[in-house]
Amino acid sequence: MKENIWQVRELKEKIVRLNGLRLFNLNVPRFFYLQKRASDDDFDRCLEWAEEIKKENLEQIFNIRTYDYQQIEKIEQLSCPHHTDISTIHNLEKILWNLNGEYYCMVDAEIPDDGRYAGNVRIYKDLSISTDLRFNIDYCKKEKRAMVRDADISISGIIDQYYEDLVLTNVLEVAKGFIEEKGFLNNHPSVIMEWTYFCKKTGTRGENLVWWEYRLK
To answer: What class has domain 113-216?
Structure first.
């Protein structure tokens, strides 16, 4: 377990942003989202969802990402625990029970070991330079278990002029399409999107590239 200690101002709750990616037909993780202090019915539905996935693949593991919000300041607190490699439904239930009274919980069924690239991409315009759409990517590339929080490489440039890496080029093309379709840069300085490239096809659309998040900056 590792804590991510930072904050972000964000008016839309995590689940709304994630569903925004899904509605745009981006490949998002297989997940179940529980509000803080979820009802017994929602808690049971989450476990039923996990059990169905486990039946399909007995080796399936689960991860829990947690979040909290300061509603008055509208700041999303991300100094919250992140549990990975939960291998049994019993342990999933036990950990969720302990967490959900304090946090919003997103349970996902993606396998960290299958990550090969992972990172954040920031898309923005710098009109003092040109009207071109620009990017910064912070990412890691590993033979096993590439995770966003382990990003140790940074690159930047103009989106339409970058072709050095096929995976990163795909990341930029998909992010650009989403951001332009939404018109986010008309009202926000930049958009950050979180992603992982897996060695096996996965997620809700069965693709290698999975999108976890976008944040308006």
So the answer is: alpha beta
